[in-house]
């Protein structure tokens, strides 16, 4: 009876060990992301996952898209092939970005995402405020720069189009959006040049340009001591 | 009866294992660099003499010391015999002086200290030999209380350098930084592999 129990116990332990070993060798892989300058925001397949240097664990093997974002630097985009059961590593040298801000006010064509629908319109950015009016006149907002609480941008993988443009189902890419929080409201928008001709890179470039302007305006309000 | 005895033994073993894990000694990783700049070592053979020139290139936007410390801490997590941590902002260690026993260890909240002294790192451009990136570093693990040496290793690692030095400095010194990162990763792998084999 005892020897049979021992045999069963040994068999169960063997099974457990074999299962653990196969799970380790099959799917899970890790990826270490490093950059020359530290504290770069890392986006993995359209999700913010942390800041460099960092190690991403329990990744599925295969191709992954990495985006590296830091103010003052060009965005770093990379496709990484993650091998299973291995410690993968990627090192990226960030390129400093010299931004020359245009004279304000400046106008941008944007797609503004509302609660239920999206509107195409024009955003006018001045040193004091952002004013938006949709082409059909149904939607508008006025956001004073001093009321802005935060300015962030996000990257999302998109298939089949963004809002009112990119209708082709074959369109695949990552689109950058700006998110501004001000006086209890959140504004999400994407800048573009031409709704029918733009490629993701063009729209993302315009969005980045708009982000640089708004971010700097907002940042100035955070650092300038208020006069009494 | 025998089965109960077996189970009790198993429970005792598990308890002992748990206690050992709880008593894991804490080891601090302290990195010191002779120079934060990249060394360019040029050696040219002439008929009657050897022309040797040493230049220093500051690496912009890249903190070599921090990068090495981070890489080591990440890799050392594999060695579960110790609980590894970086130096805190308030803790300062003169790595080279302590390694040579010329200075005592400052008070630290740790059981062991891994001293990492980077003697030099850079690019070697030598006639009659392939150009390479190199990193020379001395590791010494010591017991904090007694100052006794527990383990020591000196490593010199080289990686092939492709292209001209001028080109490697383009695009925010991309080539230089990538090359140095490669030797840094290699040194870390070698060091951790050696430490795992050591009886401490």
General description of the model:
The complex is a heterodimer of chains A (228) and B (200). In chain A, 21% of the residues lie in helices and 45% in strands. Chain A has two helices and 14 strands. Chain A is elongated, with a radius of gyration of 24 Å. In chain A, 23% of the residues are buried. With 200 residues, chain B is of the alpha/beta class. Chain B has a single domain (25-197), classed as ABC-type transport auxiliary lipoprotein component (Rossmann fold), CATH 3.40.50. Chain B has five helices and seven strands; from the N terminus they run H-E-E-E-H-E-H-E-E-E-H-H. In chain B, strands 1, 2, 3, 4, 5, 6 and 7 form a seven-stranded mixed sheet that branches. The interface between A and B is medium-sized, with 15 and 19 residues.
Key structural traits:
heterodimer, A: 228 residues, alpha+beta, Immunoglobulin-like, PH-domain like, four-stranded antiparallel β-sheet, 21% helix, B: 200 residues, alpha/beta, Rossmann fold, 7 strands, elongated
Q: Give the strand tally of chain A.
A: 14
Count structural domains of chain B.
1
Oligomer: heterodimer
CATH architecture of chain B: 3-Layer(aba) Sandwich
Rg of chain A, Cα atoms, Å = 24 Å
Distance between the terminal alpha carbons of chain A, to the nearest Å? 88 Å
CATH superfamily of chain B: ABC-type transport auxiliary lipoprotein component
Shape annotation of chain B: elongated
Tell me the fraction of residues in β-strands of chain A, as a range: over 45%
What topology, given as strand order, has the largest sheet of chain A? 11-10-9-8-14-13-12
């Amino acid at each position: 009876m005892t020897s049979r129990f021992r045999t069963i116990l040994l068999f169960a332990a063997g099974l457990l060990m074999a299962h653990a070993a196969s799970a380790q060798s099959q799917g899970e892989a890790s990826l270490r992301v490093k950059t020359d300058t530290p504290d770069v925001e890392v986006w993995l397949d359209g999700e913010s996952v942390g800041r460099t240097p960092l190690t991403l664990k329990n990744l599925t093997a295969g191709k992954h898209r990495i985006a590296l974002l830091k103010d003052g630097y060009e965005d770093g985009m990379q496709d990484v092939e993650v091998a299973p059961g291995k410690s993968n590593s990627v090192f990226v040298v960030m390129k400093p970005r010299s931004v020359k801000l245009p004279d304000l006010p400046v106008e941008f064509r944007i797609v503004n995402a509302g609660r239920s629908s999206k509107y195409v319109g024009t955003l006018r950015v001045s040193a004091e405020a952002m004013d938006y009016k949709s082409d059909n006149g149904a939607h508008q907002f006025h956001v004073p720069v001093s009321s802005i609480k935060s300015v962030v941008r996000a990257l999302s993988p998109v298939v089949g189009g963004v809002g009112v443009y990119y209708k082709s189902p074959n369109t695949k890419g990552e689109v950058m959006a700006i998110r501004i929080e001000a006086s209890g409201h959140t504004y999400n928008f994407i800048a573009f040049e031409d709704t029918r001709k733009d490629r993701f890179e063009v729209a993302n470039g315009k969005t980045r340009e708009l982000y640089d302007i708004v971010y700097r305006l907002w940042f100035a309000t955070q650092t300038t001591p208020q006069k009494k | 009866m025998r089965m109960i005895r077996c189970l009790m033994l198993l429970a005792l073993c598990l308890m002992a294992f748990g206690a050992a894990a709880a008593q894991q000694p804490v080891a601090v990783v302290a990195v010191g660099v002779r120079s934060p700049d990249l060394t360019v070592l040029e050696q040219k053979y002439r008929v009657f003499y050897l022309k040797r020139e040493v230049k220093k290139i500051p690496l912009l936007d890249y903190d070599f010391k921090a990068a090495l410390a981070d890489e080591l801490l990440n890799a050392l997590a594999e060695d579960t015999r110790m609980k590894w941590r970086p130096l805190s902002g308030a803790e300062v260690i003169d790595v080279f002086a302590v390694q040579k026993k010329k200075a005592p260890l400052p008070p630290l909240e740790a059981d062991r200290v891994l001293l990492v002294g980077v003697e030099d790192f850079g690019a070697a451009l030598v006639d009659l030999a392939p150009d390479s990136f190199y990193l020379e570093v001395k590791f010494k693990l010591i017991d904090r209380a007694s100052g006794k040496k527990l383990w020591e290793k000196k490593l010199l690692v080289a990686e092939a350098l492709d292209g001209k030095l001028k080109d490697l400095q383009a695009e925010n010194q991309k080539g230089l930084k990538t090359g140095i990162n490669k030797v840094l990763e290699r040194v870390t792998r070698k060091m951790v592999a050696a430490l795992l084999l050591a009886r401490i």
